[in-house]
Every structure is written in structure tokens, then in C-alpha cells.
Design a protein that fits this description.
This protein is of the alpha/beta class. 32% of the residues lie in helices and 16% in strands. The strands form 3 sheets. Strands 1, 3, 4, 6, 7, 8, 9, 10, 15 and 16 form a 10-stranded mixed beta sheet that branches. A 4-stranded parallel beta sheet has the order 12-13-11-14, sandwiched between helices. It has a two-stranded antiparallel ribbon with strand order 2-5. Helix 5 links the parallel strand 9 and strand 10. Helix 2 crosses helix 10 and helix 4 crosses helix 5. The protein is elongated, with a radius of gyration of 25 Å. Its EC number is 2.7.1.11. It comes from Penstemon davidsonii. Homotetramer. Pathway: Carbohydrate degradation; glycolysis; D-glyceraldehyde 3-phosphate and glycerone phosphate from D-glucose: step 3/4.
Length: 468
């Protein structure tokens, strides 16, 4: 059968491009030998592990890299600015730095709670024990301050066997308590030579200092980070562990709000979800629900009164449907909430995060004032649901449990190989080792110019709240 000339022309047009990506910059991955000379290497115990049959391609080599951006315009119409960044691929190395019998590992959880923290701890313990034969594994209690203020607890697979079924962190956590000299002195004095740090962006900033101080002292200690933030605001990586579980749990609050609103005359269900600087939980929960009429996030300003404002939009929805569901991220609207005390603006918590005003309570009050003013004597109900701590204090779901296992094993492989000062996480679906300095600085805001935000607005017909 002859080919269509149109197909041939299309094929020729497509084939004229060369698929070479220029200007690739491989991000550095620090190894202990970079500042400690003459370190020995050892064959990986995975070679003799009865559960593995390593082939030549099983082990990761220095030439295995992952591109940060995989979408490219070969026409040159939309040129990329700067180099194409690449990262070393995570996974087992054929030669490792630490002998199993000489490893003394410490695991610490810092900052707020997140689904999956106990799974990460468990898989670090089981992975070190079963994959590499490490027997000295310790949990540091109460966050960073636990290094110098409490005794570490010995961990083993039997002890952590059921931890993945529990929410929170069995090791306990806290904010603040970061004293660099005390922490590094404690790590050194207690003989830890692998440190696994689980935490968010504030914790990662602390890890940068710990890594740099250990490097300055030229200590033979590997420091590995596993990024944790329930609201998915850590940059570079595809997503943070626990995020999927949080979105799933948020559905329950949205479903309840929808039922309450639908069961009342002129009912509004108002749900406040976590998201200090980003609205990922609110946006994704909204898209999953399909019952939400309006989603307010920190990345998209809004206003209440006047043409194109929130009240006008809700008025139309109530007239059309008789009810409405409104989801708001906790960091939204902070610039328009009246502040009685200007000192509140500068108030911060122990992690250095700004203390936000309650946008949910404020919106509930403003909605009631608006209705009483514009629709006197008409029935109206606002049901306000705040599941903030409910969505983060639960065990991880199946997807996050699997994700936590892969993160833990990636961290173990990197530390055992002698790499340090890295954070592990997926980039475009492949696990990579990322310099912790980059992760500590990178943000992950919702892009209100991309397809996902447009998708949501097309479903809800929500205005952009841009003042004309």
C-alpha cells in the first residue's frame, strides 16, 4: 500500500531535527574522597546478597545522569535560558566506601509531621540491615536538639516492623534547637559516620551547615537528606513524600463540606487546607474532588468586593446552584487580612517560618457580613472545616509507602558509596542525588500559567480575580 504524500511530508519535517541536547551541566556530587585522600573502596556486599543477582547494568556508574528538564523546543522558538542541568542517578554502586561492620548510622526527623515519616525510618533501618549488613543503627529523638540533649536509641528490623502503619514519627520531632557546634560535636563524639536527615526546607538549610562543618573538619562522615514536606513546596524533585496521602485525606473534608453546603439553603462549605507558601494540596484536592467551586491559593491574589471579586462570583454560584464549596490554602489572602497589631507581621515560629493569620476564620466572618448586608432576611449558612492536622498525622497510603521505600534505599546506596551532602528524590520519574545546597534554596510554587491551573479554572469557571 502506497504511503500518503502528506505522511511523507510530515515524516520529512519531523526528521529534519537533530536530537542532541547542547550545553548540559552536570551538577556536582560530593564524595568523601574529595576532601579526605587515600580512602579505600570495597566490593558491594550486594554481589553476594542472596536476594540479588546483579548484572552489569544493575550498578549505577558516574555516567548515568538525569536531566532536570526533559521538554525541549528543537525549533529554537522558545530557547532555554542557561545550561541544561543534569544530576547523578541514584542507586547501588559496584564499589562502596564503608565496610558494613564499621558503619554507625544515625537517623533523625525534624520539623512538622508528614505521612510516611515512620516508613522512611523503617526502610532505612531494614535497608541498612538487610542490604548491607549494618548492625549499628540509631534513632535520634526530638529533632536536631536530640543529637546533644538525649541518648540515641538503637534500632533493628524487628523493633521497627510495624512503624509504617503509624502516623507521625516514633522518633519524635521538634522545631528549632539547631546548634551547629553541639550537633557536629555530638555526631563526632558518638562515632556516627552516616547521618540520615529527614525534614523540610528549613531542615535542609540546617543540613547544609552540618555538611559544610563536617567537610571543614575533614571528618569521614556521610550526610544524606530525605526531603519531607506535606505541602509539596520543596523544589527540583517531582513531589515530596506524604503529599499524595494528604491530598487523599483532604478529600474527606471537601466531601463533608459539599454535603453540608448542599443540604442547606444558600449553603457554603468552606475548607482550609495546609499550604503556607504553595497551594499544591488545595489545588490537587480540588481537582480530585470536582465538587469545589472556588480554590484560593497563595500564588494567586484575590479580592472580595466589587466587579470580578469573590463575593460576586459566589453570588452567581448560589443563584445557579443553591450552594457552593470554597477551598482555601492557609497562606492565601495574607496581604488583605486586616492586622490589629503590626508586630504580628514579623512574628515567626521556631523554624523561622512566618506566623500566618487564620484566613479560614476571617473568610467565614467576611462571608457572613457580606450576606447580611447584600441579602438581608435571606437564609444563609457557612460551614467551616479545618482539617489541617488531620491530613498530616495519618499513616502513608500505598503510593507514599512505596515512594518512601525507594527514597530510603536511594539514600542508603549513596551514603554507603561515600557520597555526602546530597538529597535524594525523583526527577522526571528517575531517582537522583541532588546537592543539598540546591534543595535548601529551591522552591516549588504552583505555576498559575501552566496546564493544571488552566484545567482547574476550566472546570470551576473560576475567575482569575485580576482587577481591571
Amino acid at each position: 500500500m502506497a504511503s500518503s504524500p502528506y505522511q511523507n511530508a510530515e515524516s520529512e519535517s519531523e526528521n529534519k531535527f537533530t536530537f542532541a541536547i547542547p550545553n548540559i551541566k552536570l551538577q556536582p556530587l560530593t564524595h568523601l574522597k574529595d576532601y579526605i585522600p587515600n580512602l579505600q573502596t570495597h566490593p558491594s556486599p550486594l554481589d553476594t546478597n542472596p536476594f540479588f543477582r546483579p548484572l552489569s547494568e544493575f550498578y549505577i556508574t558516574p555516567s548515568d545522569v538525569i536531566l532536570r528538564h526533559i521538554l525541549h523546543d528543537f525549533t529554537g522558538t522558545f530557547p532555554t535560558s542557561g545550561p541544561n542541568l543534569a544530576y547523578h542517578r541514584a542507586g547501588p554502586r559496584k564499589q562502596i566506601h564503608f565496610e558494613s561492620g564499621h558503619v554507625r548510622a544515625a537517623i533523625v526527623t525534624c520539623g512538622g509531621l508528614c505521612p510516611g515519616m515512620n516508613t522512611v525510618i523503617k526502610e532505612l533501618v531494614v535497608g541498612l540491615w538487610e542490604l548491607y549488613g549494618v548492625r549499628e543503627i540509631y534513632g535520634v529523638r526530638a529533632g536536631y536538639r536530640g543529637f546533644y540533649s538525649t541518648e540515641a536509641v538503637a534500632l533493628n528490623p524487628k523493633m521497627v516492623d510495624e512503624w509504617h502503619r503509624k502516623g507521625g514519627t516514633v522518633l519524635e520531632t521538634s522545631r528549632g534547637g539547631f546548634d551547629l557546634d553541639k550537633i557536629v560535636n555530638a555526631i563526632q563524639d558518638r562515632g556516627f559516620n552516616q547521618v540520615y536527615i529527614i525534614g523540610g526546607d528549613g531542615t535542609m538549610r540546617g543540613m547544609v551547615q552540618i555538611f559544610n562543618e563536617i567537610k571543614r573538619r575533614k571528618l569521614n562522615i556521610a550526610v544524606a537528606g530525605i526531603p519531607k514536606t506535606v505541602d509539596n513546596d520543596v523544589g527540583i524533585i517531582d513531589k515530596s513524600f506524604g503529599f499524595q496521602t494528604a491530598v487523599e485525606m483532604a478529600q474527606q473534608a471537601i466531601n463533608a463540606a459539599h454535603t453540608e453546603a448542599e443540604s442547606a439553603v444558600n449553603g457554603i462549605g468552606l475548607v482550609k487546607l495546609m499550604g503556607r507558601s504553595t497551594g499544591h494540596i488545595a489545588l490537587n484536592a480540588t481537582l480530585c474532588s470536582r465538587d469545589v467551586d472556588c480554590c484560593l491559593i497563595p500564588e494567586n491574589d484575590f479580592y472580595l468586593e466589587g466587579k470580578g471579586g469573590l463575593f460576586e462570583f459566589l453570588d452567581i454560584r448560589l443563584k445557579d446552584n443553591g450552594h457552593a464549596v470554597l477551598v482555601v490554602a492557609e497562606g492565601a489572602g495574607q496581604d488583605i487580612i486586616p492586622r490589629d497589631d503590626q508586630s504580628h507581621v514579623a512574628e515567626k515560629d521556631e523554624s523561622g517560618n512566618p506566623v500566618f493569620l487564620d484566613v479560614g476564620g476571617w473568610l467565614k466572618s467576611e462571608l457572613k457580613k457580606w450576606w447580611e448586608r447584600d441579602h438581608p432576611k435571606e437564609l444563609f449558612t457557612v460551614k467551616y472545616i479545618d482539617p489541617t492536622y488531620m491530613i498530616r498525622a495519618v499513616p502513608a497510603n500505598a503510593t507514599d509507602n512505596l515512594y518512601c521505600t525507594l527514597l530510603a534505599h536511594s539514600a542508603i546506596h549513596g551514603a554507603m558509596a561515600g557520597y555526602t551532602g546530597f538529597v535524594c528524590g525523583p526527577i522526571n520519574g528517575n531517582y537522583a542525588y541532588i546537592p543539598v545546597e540546591e534543595v535548601a534554596k529551591a522552591k516549588n510554587p504552583v505555576n498559575t500559567r501552566d496546564h493544571k491551573w488552566a484545567w482547574f479554572r476550566s472546570i470551576a469557571n473560576q475567575p482569575d480575580f485580576a482587577r481591571s
